[in-house]
Amino acid sequence: MAEADARSRRVVTLVSALAGLAMLAAGVWSLAGTRSFAAFANFGHHEHFLHDLGAFQIGIGVMVLLALIWADALATALAALFVANTLHVVNHVIDLSHGGFAWQAWALAAVSVAVAVALVLRVRQLGSVLGAVSVSTEPTLERFLRQKTVNVTTYRADGTPRAAPQDR
């Protein structure tokens, strides 16, 4: 059973990595080569929408790849949203001559700033532990799995706490 589980994990990891990389590649292609991407996909060429398509494909690729190494779904989603939306802001600034309004870029930029703040706060909530942490074999230690440090207090035989070295 353990071998089947390991094989299943390898397949999921491989498919996820390849799909994430494919989304990144398609996104970069859509951003950098709008005409060739539109011809390949066999739909009309609209530079701004192809730029947006690329931004969001890159965001999806980042999300899938980060999900392989980050355990927290919210941090993963916020990071991917930040990447996609920030590229979207850049598209609006660059493509302003194609239409749209400057306020749209500013509004999208405000969203990116808010998402960045939320991501930083989320990472702090997690104690900067984004990766997966293996399970504990001792149930009483489960609550310590996501923290990076543990404050240990030792006690003397009479029950009084012993001062930590930095407290002496």
Automatic annotation (TrEMBL):
Membrane spanning residue stretches: 12-32, 53-83, 103-121
The protein, known as: Uncharacterized protein
Keywords in alphabetical order: Membrane, Transmembrane, Transmembrane helix
Highest rank taxon of the organism: Bacteria
